[in-house]
Amino acid sequence: MADRAADHWRIGVLSGTGTALKRTIPALRESELCRVSVVHGRNPDRLRAAAQHAPHAKLVTDEREFEELAAHYDVVFIGSPPFLHPRHIALAVRLGKPILCEKPLVSRPDDLAAVVDTLSGHDIPFMLAHQLRHQEAVRHISSLVTGGELGVPVAATLQWCFRMNHDAPNARWKADPARGGASALTDCGVHCLDLAAALFGHPESVAASAHSVKSASTMDTVVVLLSCGGLPVMVVASQQGHPGANDLTITFSDGLVQAKGMLGEAALPAVTWTQGSATTTRSFDPVNLYRAEVEDFCRSLSNGHSVGTTLADAVAVCATVFAAEESARRGETVTIKR
């Protein structure tokens, strides 16, 4: 557990002018638990935009300045693209601060061992910012999976597709395998893999098929079949697919769970499950997932109870991504190395 210097947790955002500016910094403006106190970014104009959501935050354009302001934040939120995570995680470890890092942990196999080595031997709280876990709907679905009232799980499907704008600034690194990874699995697909791990456990093997709809150098569409303790789980991820079926479906021996729109940026409003001929729908209060993931991490620093993606989870999901990409290239099932 960690301490805080004020009545709220102060968040220092490292690389805060990309995804963090779009989602995390605005989400924390109304938080009663957390405050953004320092924002780092290379673009002064985008830093000024961040200041509109965090008017009292100190703004810096240099990583050295961010380190020098360490007394002004309790937690480091790493908002950079995954190819920068090894460097930024090493920076946060030097500071000895709790780390909340954007997903995925890394996008390249060679970086995974380096990050694990950096974090090993340090008693520093770490969580990966997978927003989907931080909602009541996921906890309810998990209880249906383990509760037995619908029988045993028979199969599951998770899908996240979207149409990537190749003219957007982040498309330059997302479509570059040396920076964004070899496939859509390090983008939208990693959400599916993390949620599958949360619900069904980490898979032992994977078979994948992939192709490219638009990208010249990456596999922008991937279909994955996981074996999670013998349970077949299918994941569909595409950076060029229509988002209309971004759902989670779980078939049981005696029932069915359907979470329409589960895979997305907004919290799931309702879950429907069928048992025999009876169908039940449970609705959930709206929640900002990007605020919830930060608040949940900060609560865990006080109470020691984590509800998010641990380092072990993050490493296992990366191993699954790389095994799936290997499977797609080789055209055969691959055992996942831990």
From TrEMBL:
<dbReference type="InterPro" id="IPR055170">
    <property type="entry name" value="GFO_IDH_MocA-like_dom"/>
</dbReference>
<dbReference type="GO" id="GO:0016491">
    <property type="term" value="F:oxidoreductase activity"/>
</dbReference>
<dbReference type="Pfam" id="PF22725">
    <property type="entry name" value="GFO_IDH_MocA_C3"/>
</dbReference>
<dbReference type="InterPro" id="IPR000683">
    <property type="entry name" value="Gfo/Idh/MocA-like_OxRdtase_N"/>
</dbReference>
<feature type="domain" description="Gfo/Idh/MocA-like oxidoreductase N-terminal">
    <location>
        <begin position="15"/>
        <end position="127"/>
    </location>
</feature>
<dbReference type="Pfam" id="PF01408">
    <property type="entry name" value="GFO_IDH_MocA"/>
</dbReference>
<keyword id="KW-0560">Oxidoreductase</keyword>
<feature type="domain" description="GFO/IDH/MocA-like oxidoreductase">
    <location>
        <begin position="139"/>
        <end position="256"/>
    </location>
</feature>
<dbReference type="InterPro" id="IPR050463">
    <property type="entry name" value="Gfo/Idh/MocA_oxidrdct_glycsds"/>
</dbReference>
<dbReference type="GO" id="GO:0000166">
    <property type="term" value="F:nucleotide binding"/>
</dbReference>
<protein>
    <submittedName>
        <fullName>Dehydrogenase</fullName>
    </submittedName>
</protein>
<dbReference type="InterPro" id="IPR036291">
    <property type="entry name" value="NAD(P)-bd_dom_sf"/>
</dbReference>
